Amino acid sequence: MAPVEEKYRRLPGRRRGVISGASLWMGSDHILLVKSAWFREEYKRFYLRDIQAIVVARGPRFYFSMPMLILAVVWLFSGLAMRAWPNSVAMGWIAVTIALPVVWLAISITAGCRCRLYTAVSRDDLPSLFRTWTARRFLRQVQPRIEQVQGRVEAGWADAERGHAGPSVAAMAPTETPRQAAAAGHTLASDLFVLSLVVSSIVGLATASSPAAVWNRVNTGLNLMQLAGAAVVLVQHSRRILGRAMQRVAIASLLLTGVTFYVQTFSFAFVNGVRIGAGPGQASAVRPFVVAHQVTYGLDLLLGLIGAIVTLRGTYHDEPDMIKD
Amino acid sequence: MPLPCARCDSPLPLWELASADAAACTSCGSRNTVRVFPALFAAPSAPAVPESALDGEAACFDHPSKRAVAACHLCGRFVCQLCSVEFGDQVWCPGCVAGGRGQGKSLYLEPSRTLYDSIAVTAPLASLIFWPLTIVTGPGTVVFSAMTWKRPLSLVRRRRWRFVLAILIGLAETVGWIWLIIFWWEQFRMGQNGAR
Question: Which chain B residues touch A169 with a CB distance below 8 Å?
Answer without folding.
Answer: 1-2, 14
